[in-house]
């Protein structure tokens, strides 16, 4: 009986005593001294692993040494500098031709667009009507660098070795279309600077005067047959006249006379400069 009583007492003590976690601890107070409970074990604070979190040092380093940013104005500035070298930038004015080189192909090719631009600036005829205006077409001379490249009878492709800058005497076809170098039968006044003695302007006509008859140096076809003058008389065989415009407008149309004069005089001045005529 004493043995049974002792076993019963021991069992009661075990049942009513404070339970101990099988792993060792549940909280810091379960550990002795200054130890703490970490992962159900009592450990010294120095042995505890530091909390896992982003180290602020990384952020500070980024702030102290920022990654270089692309300057938003860098490309713009570079583009502005580069733009001065692009074809879109205004081109420099072409150097004027040298009078003594007028006969050279390069000089003729350089001069043709200069003269053409002058003729193209001729104003268009207008008629004012009901507070507005009607604008009509006009035709101006065609300037070619080499008459030989055209289909004209004189100095055309059929006559080898005749190469001059040329200004057309006729500017439109019978259907009032502007002529081209391929328009057949168009007479051109040859800009043969070695033969030109004078250039005169009368109204809207430029007259070139040569030191002899055109047919003597202009090929096999005479001036009258080629249509240079369309007039009879020996004096007309040594000159070639160029109308500076043909108007397609009615007779009551109007053109600014000052603008027309400016174009006519500008053309004469440029031909004289090209040929070195004072």
Instruction: Round the Cα radius of gyration to an integer and report it.
Output: 50 Å
Helical/strand content category: alpha+beta
Strand content: 15-25%
Shape: elongated
Q: What spatial order of strands do you see in the largest sheet? A: 6-7-8
Share in helix: 25-40%
The strand count comes to: 12
Number of helical segments with 4 or more residues: 6
Determine the mean pLDDT: 74
Low-confidence parts lasting 5 or more residues at pLDDT below 50? 5-22, 51-92, 221-227
Whole-number tally of structural domains: 2
Give the biggest sheet: 3 strands, antiparallel
Q: Alpha-carbon distance between the termini?
A: 157 Å
Task: Encode the helix/strand succession as letters.
Answer: HEEHHHEEEEEEEEHEEH
Write the layout of secondary structure elements.
Blueprint: H1 2-16, E1 36-38, E2 41-43, H2 56-64, H3 74-83, H4 105-120, E3 126-129, E4 132-135, E5 138-139, E6 143-144, E7 165-168, E8 188-191, E9 196-202, E10 205-210, H5 223-226, E11 239-243, E12 246-247, H6 257-275
Antiparallel strand pairs: 1-2, 3-4, 5-12, 6-7, 7-8, 9-10, 10-11
């Amino acid at each position: 009986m004493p043995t049974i009583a002792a076993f019963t007492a021991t069992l009661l003590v075990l049942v009513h005593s404070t339970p101990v976690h099988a792993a060792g601890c549940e909280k810091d107070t379960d550990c002795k001294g200054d130890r703490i409970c970490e992962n159900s074990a009592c450990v010294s604070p120095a042995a505890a692993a530091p909390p896992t979190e982003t180290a602020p040092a990384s952020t500070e380093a980024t702030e102290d040494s920022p990654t270089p940013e692309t300057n938003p104005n860098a490309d713009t500035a570079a583009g502005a500098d580069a733009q001065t070298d692009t074809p879109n930038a205004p081109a420099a004015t072409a150097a004027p031709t040298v009078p003594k080189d007028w006969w050279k192909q390069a000089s003729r090719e350089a001069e043709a667009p200069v003269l053409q631009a002058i003729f193209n600036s001729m104003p268009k005829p207008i008629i004012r009507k009901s507070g507005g205006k009607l604008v009509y077409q006009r035709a101006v001379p065609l300037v070619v660098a080499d008459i030989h490249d055209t289909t004209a009878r004189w100095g055309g492709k059929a006559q080898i070795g005749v190469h001059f800058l040329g200004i057309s005497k006729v500017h439109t076809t019978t259907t009032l279309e502007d002529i081209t170098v391929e328009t057949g039968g168009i007479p051109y006044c040859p800009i043969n600077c070695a033969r030109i003695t004078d250039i005169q302007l009368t109204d809207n006509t430029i007259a070139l005067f040569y030191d002899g008859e055109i047919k003597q140096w202009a090929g096999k076809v005479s001036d009258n047959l080629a249509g240079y003058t369309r007039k009879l008389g020996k004096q007309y065989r040594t000159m070639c006249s160029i109308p500076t415009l043909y108007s397609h407008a009615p007779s009551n149309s109007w053109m600014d006379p000052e603008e027309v004069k400016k174009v006519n005089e500008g053309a004469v001045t440029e031909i004289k400069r090209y040929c070195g005529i004072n």
